[in-house]
Design a protein that fits this description.
With 152 residues, this protein is of the alpha+beta class. Helices cover 41% and strands 15% of the residues. It has 2 domains: 3-48; 61-134, Alpha-Beta Plaits, CATH 3.30.70.3460. The protein has helices at 3-14, 24-32, 36-48, 61-64, 79-87, 113-127; strands at residues 66-72, 92-97, 104-110, 132-134. Strands 2-3-1-4 form a 4-stranded antiparallel β-sheet.
Length: 152
């Protein structure tokens, strides 16, 4: 089976609605007409090549605890070091650089707001940089799926 074709079909079909069952990869493979090992090898290939950044659910954070968008204004020469420190926290589920005075942005999710405050305080102590804390006030639902064209 052509890996490129399988990858396109996999990403088109399962950007949303991954099976909730004891063997999701087997179910996905069955849906795509391949075996589970082919599907897993395709996922490993996508991961190694940088075409896939994560596989997993997206939770409604307000039902699972607390969440906030945060940013740091990091001197360019410290950006890699500070980004690695931020990424060490299991509460961080996105961490990315941007071209702006606040050049390191990340999302924190935790059990409650005081927990997030402790993480932000600890980061400030560790880095000497004051986080910009931007909690969500209004939710806007957008579909982040992208059709990859015809997938035979």
């Amino acid at each position: 089976m052509d890996m490129g074709s399988l990858a396109r079909r996999l990403m088109n079909r399962f950007q949303h609605g991954m099976p909730l069952c004891p063997e999701p990869y087997r179910e996905m493979a069955s849906t795509l007409g391949c075996d589970e090992e082919q599907l897993l090898e395709c996922l490993r290939h996508l991961d190694r090549s940088g075409q896939l950044s994560r596989i997993g659910p997206v939770f409604e954070h307000s039902r699972a605890g607390a969440s906030t968008l945060a940013a740091l204004a990091v001197p360019v020469e410290r950006l890699q070091q500070v980004a690695e420190r931020v990424s060490q926290y299991p509460e961080v589920n996105h961490n990315y650089a941007r071209e702006h005075a606040y050049n390191l942005w990340f999302v924190l999710t935790g059990p409650d707001r005081p927990h997030l405050d402790r993480v932000l305080d600890e980061l400030q102590q560790d880095t000497g940089l004051a986080p910009l804390d931007l909690p969500m006030l209004t939710a806007y639902r957008i579909d982040l799926g992208f059709a990859l064209g015809d997938a035979p």
